[in-house]
Design brief:
Length: 430
Amino acid sequence: MASGVLQSLLGALQASISILLVIFYGVLANQYKLLDGASSKKISKVCVHMFLPALLITKVGNELHADTGTRYIPILIWSLFFILVSVGIGLLAVKLFKFPAYVTPALAFNNTTSLPLLLIESLEFTGILDNLLTDGDTVSKAISRGESYFLVCALVSNSLVFALGPRLLAADKEPEQEDHDDEDDEAEQNGAANGDVEQGEDDDEQTSLLPNRVRKTQDKFQARASRLGKRFWDKLSPRTQGVLSFLSDSANPPLIGAVLGAILGLVPPLHRVFFNDSEEGGIFKAWLTQSLSKIGQLFVTLQVVVVGVSLSASLRKVKRGEDKGLPWGSTLFILGIRFIIWPVLSIAIIWLLATKTNLLRDDPILWFAMALMPTGPPAMILVAMAEVSGAGEHEKMTISKILTLSYAASPLMALTVVGALYASQAAISK
């Protein structure tokens, strides 16, 4: 028994260290000026807006069938449950202990995408998931299911982080406002560049590839649609505007990707042509589905590398500024909830649901993934939220140091992995 626990712990620790090394590679890329803050933001943006939706389309669509679609309902409920409970804990802690406002989103939104996806991929090579395989199951199939489970959880988290995040930080702007401003500036630059072209100047990388007639028609249509939309918006009541704003913030590219994946998976003819082998009618699998799968796989590693770049840039800012030290009360509270309290609670709750009820599917990988979902370091989006909320330099440096410490402590997730593994094994025997 002791040797089995030690072997599982070493396997989980190896998987966690591999993630930490990928983060370290991002730090090295920043230190040697291969990537900087601006480039990492662009990479992160393309990861969220293109690579993650592609990953959701292929993973969720491939795993989702008309007769197995209900397997994701417990994940949706569980994800919503632990996020809202974390928000409640954070708001209560801020009120009772006078913690800073960033404690609430730090508790509510953990890294639910790149970190757990890379972790479960690393576990494939440690062999510790073999005991969770059912009859006819393979490690590769189990890993694929686990990835789809984490992606559905990430869908809920990403939808709420853009809708609730700024409000939890009492922000007046949206998390993506800075990006929108960049896009507006880019549009202005495109317009200027296009104007220069019309005046006979050389093209550059900002020049639109559309013909001038098409571009002018598009600009007129967008301007007219914007005016009509503003008139309609101004006629709405403040409450209606608030509801529509919340729904608009919740809609994002990952959500669209997940909806497309669900449609492709649940509609049998679409599932056949997109995900079946060519000899079984999968006319799109070899080229279209595979292309989406390839760019989707870029998300997992690139996003973790960006974490390293962001942490390195943040540490450099801390080094240049005045270091007033960490607020250890709120820092230890965040780390305690993320790495101790939620792991214990989630493992116990999932074990009870798997053994005492019929609410969960008879899939040990599902139990294992659900036990891991509420755990781990806060999401890096916290930095962006602090940036757009008008937080002071000291507060932003504090958040950066908390995130650095949280990701440095990510090997502690090995303990959660072992706990979830043995709880799942115990549930099988029941």
